[in-house]
Amino acid sequence: MSARTRELFGLLPVSLLVAAGFAAVLTTRTQDVSDATLTYGAVFLGLCVVAHLFIRARLPDADPYMFPLSALLAAIGLVLIYRIDPELAREQAQWFVAGLAFFCGTILVIRDHHVLERYRYTIAAGSIALLAMPRLPGIGAPVNGAYLAIKVGSIQFQPAEFAKLGIIVFLASYLRETGDILVRPRLRPLPYQRQLLLYGLPAVLTFLAILVLDLGAAGAVLLAVMVASLVAVLRERPSPKHFGPLLLVWGLAMLMLIFIRDLGSSVMFFGGFLALLYVATGRLSLVGIGSTLFFAGAFYLAQAESHVEQRVDVWLDPFKPGVVDREGYQIAQALFAQADGGLFGQGFGRALLDLPGGGTILPAAHTDLIYAVLANEAGLFGAAGLIGAYLLLVFRGFKTALYGGDGFSKLLATGLTAVLALQVFVIVGGVTRVIPLTGVTLPFVSYGGSSIVANMVLLALLLIVSDRARAERARRGGLV
Amino acid sequence: MNRQIVQLFAVVGVLFALLVAFTSRWTVFEAKSLENNQANRRPLIEEEKIPRGLIYARDGRTVIARNRAEGRAEDRIYTRLYPTGGLFAHPIGYSFIKNGRRSLEQSRNDDLAGQEDEFQSILSGLESNDREGFDVVTNLDVRGTQAAVAGLAGRKGAVVAIEPQTGKVRVMVSIPEYDPNLITSQFGRINNDPNQPLLNRSTQELYPPGSTFKVVTTTAALDSGKVTPDTIIDGSSPKVISGVPLENAGGESFGPISLTDALTNSVNVVFAQVGERIGRETLVEYMKRYGFFSDPKLDYPDFQMVPSGIINGDGKYVQNGFDVGRVAIGQGGLEGEIRSAPIQMAEVAATVANGGRLMRPQLTDRVVRKDGRVKERVEPDLQSVVMKPETAKELTEMMSRVVEEGTGTAGALAGIRVAGKTGTAEVGAAREFTQPWFIAFAPVETPRMAVAVTVERQPPGSQGGTVAAPIAKSVLEALLESGG
Questions:
Q1: What is the pTM of this model?
Q2: Following DSSP, what letter does each residue of B282-350 receive, concatenated?
Q3: Considering chain A, what is the average pLDDT of its residues?
Q4: With contacts defined as CB-CB under 8 Å, which chain A residues touch B126?
Q5: In a domain, A204, yes or no
Q6: What is B204-295+307-340's CATH topology?
Q7: Could you give the number of structural domains in chain A?
Q8: ipTM value of the model?
């Protein structure tokens, strides 16, 4: 069976799921199954088949599982959003069509992803400009204290969703070039006295600093990791001039925290950056420096910025009296909704969403908290199934990276996949109180035009890389 | 580079596993505590969407509590409506999201809210989508209740009637009552009313039982073999009991008198001596068999019941050190005074009527599904064997004399023999009020109904025989007529 045929068969269960999901929601809503459910399933299947035929024509060798998996996630999203508000689902369906158009457009325009390397600085500059846009007066406005969206006329748009793609393309390209020379092993070991100086002095200084500065446990650990990582880098031969752009990325992440004030998206960016840095150089020490710098910045901001500090406090104890009705309301309700779901959930369309007398019990149910709605309706099994689907998608993404024929392909696929995985972790982790809750979308599932379009473009890029890599392998007679 | 990619995938795997772990924490492991979290309004909102079961009087027709639906389709919610107003307010109570629940609405909430056990809920989940409450048919008798309310005629007090063989509670009246329909709009006023209409005087208030307690004393004395109904005891007044002279009611002196005659005329000094003869330990033992010193075993919320018993000046329950002579006649002192809830004295009468076997009092008769199938029938439940059948028989004879020729003649019914005991306790700071009591059961041959009546803080001169006995009479009449 060819890869494309497998993909086609993969789409069948997805359409069945859409039909069944809509049937379930409609039944609880109106007590009878109308033909509408079949129509929904058929239309969804039709759209997916069109996209599939397009892939068949343009990327015949691309990974056969990624598209059906993404379609599955989008289908779950559509059913959940329909259950929350049919009007929003209609809009989301339109965005899904737009996303498919962008998907095909990307594949048409970028025949070979290596062309992106040529424009990497343009792309980087464009991404930074995109990130800054929500701070521009007139079009940008803060939502819950975070500057994430811009509004032109009636169209709202989250530039960060696209900026993340640009930054990954830039980093993949930049690190492909500099990854090997950023840090190089020493040809000869350092002389004995130098080694003593290199290891001993920082150890003593760190110890003294911890004692004198009274940093507390977290601070002490941060400092120790930081110093140890620095020493590890210095032991080899770092190339200072190539660190410039990387410091820029760190600075960018800090600026994002300060200007956009959104912990979630900056964690996502910086995490993607560190993942790429690690894959490109194989140096854990660089990740150590990067993450300690990030945490130090975040800690500082948590103290300086009431917005960030409050989020952390709410995360630590959302049920504190006086908090639970206000700042902690969203996360508390998210947890209550999950508790209501139990092992198997209440069933599609059965979860409590509307308060008697108007209003909704789950704020932002269709975006931030859509995972809580799923856990409420489909239970632990449904939620774990969703995470499983993401894990499979991530698995195929990293597999694409493994197959990649050159450094750029590998890094691009790794970066795109890592950023997707991190986004899932940041929002689901927020909803399940693993980390403080911040507002990013659940890829393919949450309501949001920018999100679905950007993720379809991400998928298109992954498929392009995959097509090249697998075609190459097939030519060389390797297993696909 | 590939090695790092594989490692990265492993990290993602760990992170995702963490997500699943935390999801299971909230959905399964800590779900119960989240459900019970004060800030969680979901259970209340869900409950409001379920039509609660109806509550019926024992006839199965008179609706005591029903629902009013508001809103349409998805948004439909139900609120409680009580067609009988305050008539059954104390046994039934109310249930409102904002004000909480009380009485049977609270103690039978699981049934009324339609909660099934695990296995049943899977079955009914297959049957239908919408949860519905189960109906509860109570043992409460409409005519008996009306007779009790009419008898008390607005005076504060309580009436409890129990079917001796089954423990079915036929009447539970406490005056003043409240209108449960007004709870949502006027809770503050009702709650702050100095007359305490929310207080169920039949289960929540303790009164000195006066001479009705002599039935308990006599039970202990006869059953333990210390005396017989014919034992002659000196009834001259006053008599020194525990170092302090005790007088009969009105200072009347009787001389040597049989125990039967002493009960008929409620001779204090005789029963005080009987009490001293049986001792504290035996008296407390028999009290416990009757259910004193613990909450009634009624299907009723714990917070609305208090144990009857011997209470000292500090308000603590005591089982020794009290003046046994004075407790034996239903009084006492600072080191221990006998105090009883009306339902406890009704249980005493019912026990004697049932040959010494105390049946657990029950407000509920059965729980019925919407399709008419009986989900649960409350079977008679033996709470304890208080005395030998012979003791009960002797006691019954003695108590019937009280109604035939003694202090309780006002409780007599035409053509039906009644056994009873009057009581008149002095209450108030200067003993300026009386607490009239009457406990009774009928017919003497095959008792079908037992009753306890008490009226709060009556003017001096009001006695159990004149104030409480007529009320008991009309309640017994109504209940025996309606086939109790």
A1: 0.66
A2: HHHHHHHHHTTTS----SS-GGG----EEE-TTS-B-SSSS-HHHHHTT-EETTEEEEB-HHHHHHHHH
A3: 84
A4: none
A5: no
A6: Beta-lactamase (3.40.710)
A7: 1
A8: 0.91
